[in-house]
Amino acid sequence: MISLAEITRYARVALKYGVVAAGVLTLLFLLFLLIRFLINVINPPVPEPPGMKFGPMVNNLPVQTTKPTHTYNINTITGLLPVVPDRLRVYKVKQPESDLLALQKAREVVRTHGYTLEETLVSPGEYRWKNSTGGSIIYDIQSKNFQLVTGIGLEKQDFVLPSEDNITSQLLTYIQDFGSSLIGLDQQAPLLEYYQSDGTNLLPVVDRTTAYLAKVAFKQNDLPVDPFIFKTDESRTVESLPLYYTQPDGTNQTFIVKAGGRNIQIVSGTFKNYQIDTADFSTYPLKTPEQAFEDLKNGDAYFVNPGTTNTISITEVVLGYFMPETTPEYVMPIYIFKGKDFTAYVYGIGTYVPDQNLSN
To answer: How many helices (H) and strands (E) does the chain have?
Structure first.
């Protein structure tokens, strides 16, 4: 029979060899990790190419017949262009479903707002109606987007504008009265600017209490992206990017409203809320900032604000998505170059290069 002392001795021996074996295995594992790290440094793995499942993309920035001829220099805080990823998502835009009764329904909708005169086909799916006060509406019978002028003038009346929340609430109700969708719209924080008028032109005011006109622009929600590190003067993680529009001081969902007592009066408005399918996207190669800057210097850009000087100092370069005024099939990334009184968009999709720098 084995004595307790022998059992203890065997246990100690087994424990000693077990500790040695564990130490050896740990060292081997650490050595494996070191070798793999060195291999990746010497011969880094090539990332999977972007999916590009939608096929070739076409630049959908507006075409400008005249382009400014500027000299550009980079005057960011670091004096450098940012570091960005080699790819970004492209999102598909939902197309409205066909409805054989769409025209009849549209007539009923616009009639409730007084647009009953001179029905005219403007383009496939878009009709114009007029009202008795000189106003008109162009209404897309499938998407329920619209553009209108009510016939209400800009002249001053003895009313004051209600609170911003009240203005926003009334406008959202007004939009829904046309059967239009608010999906994807930032309903909580519209952009508001305040004005007076000389009867023809809007005159900005600083003191809101003196204003009797307001411009209200609703933004669409930022689009999520695969998180990446955006490096300029400091590194930050980017998880979503905003949408940019053709107009520098508005969106595709912008209204001019006028004080009218308890209720606001709608002077004019554009509502083109194209529905982005955030679940239907594919990654596409992104131009490097250097490539985008070369495009800008060559005039291959949409100049939102072309500036007033021949030499433009670029003080900021950011990424975003462009939303055109007409129904898009996709929303695609752009570079936004900014300077003093200057803004330009450069189409962001480039050619996939396997060894292009990855920032994340």
So the answer is: 4, 20
The pLDDT tens digits for 147-167 are 999 999 998 888 889 999 999
d(CA 127, CA 82) in angstroms, rounded, equals: 45
Give me the amino acid identity at 335: Y
Q: Provide the Cα torsion 119, 120, 125, 126; round to 10°.
A: -90
Decide if 291 contacts 350 (C-beta within 8 A): yes
Three-state SS annotation for 171-240:
HHHHHHHCCCCCCCECCCCCEEEEEEECCCCEEECCCHHHCCEEEEECCECCEEEEEEEEECCCEEEEEE
Query: What backbone torsions phi and psi does residue 27 show, to the nearest 5 degrees?
Result: -65, -40
* Confidence (pTM): 0.83
Give residue 20's identity as a one-letter amino acid code.
V
The answer to whether the beta carbons of residues 104 and 119 sit under 8 Å apart is no
Spatial separation of the C-alpha atoms in residues 216 and 256, rounded to whole Å: 6
Other beta carbons within 10 Å of 14: 10
d(CA 142, CA 96): 6
**Among 298, 246, 290, residue whose Cα is nearest residue 69:** 298
* Confidence at residue 41, expressed as pLDDT on a 0 to 100 scale: 59
